[in-house]
Design brief:
174 residues, alpha+beta, Muramoyl-pentapeptide Carboxypeptidase, domain 2, 4-stranded antiparallel sheet
């Protein structure tokens, strides 16, 4: 029996959002367990390794599942970013530079950091993990893409979360 086959569009969208929240909750539970057993530094190291692998797999499946052009440059990356699990539960946006040579991605509301702030905890220092994650995701979409972190908690401007810049390597064009 497949209960999803009988669901309306709205029910399926609600289910997708619930699955995305469950996915992120599992990531948080895993990280806390690793931190309790191994300490913050080792947990962050393991987290970065796990995110590198996951981001690669996620990008590869998104490309295949949604027919995103191989080596499609920043346009392909913009499309792929919209299909990430994050996009269902975190507010985010992208902006193009005037010459369309740079794509900027900003997380407007991050569930992880919002939860920590609500609990009175310090921001999670996510830059090192994010650098590995976004590099793995972007270069799986197109190996010519370079990634640069603009800011990430806890070094983000007041009330902000992470922001990333993507561009093609020098000399490369779409």
């Amino acid at each position: 029996m497949n209960p999803y086959a009988e669901m309306s569009r709205e029910e399926l969208l609600d289910a997708l959002e619930m699955f995305a929240k469950n996915w992120l909750a599992h990531d948080g539970c895993w990280f806390l367990a690793a931190e309790e057993k191994l300490g913050l530094e080792k947990a962050i190291d393991l987290d970065a390794k796990a995110w590198k692998r996951f981001a690669f797999a996620e990008a590869r499946r998104i490309k295949r599942g949604f027919g995103i052009e191989e080596n499609g440059g920043l346009d392909a990356l913009e499309e792929a970013l919209g299909y990430r699990m994050y996009s269902l539960i975190n507010e985010q946006h992208v902006e193009w530079s005037d010459d369309r040579r740079t794509l900027r991605f900003e997380m407007d509301v991050c569930r992880v950091q919002e939860t920590r702030r609500r609990k009175g905890l310090d921001d999670f220092p996510c830059r090192s993990v994010g650098e590995v994650e976004f590099e793995s995701f972007a270069t799986t979409v197109d190996p010519r893409i370079e990634v640069r972190c603009e800011h990430c908690p806890p070094d983000a401007p007041e009330g902000k979360y992470c922001a990333w810049r993507f561009s093609l390597k020098d000399g490369e064009t779409d």
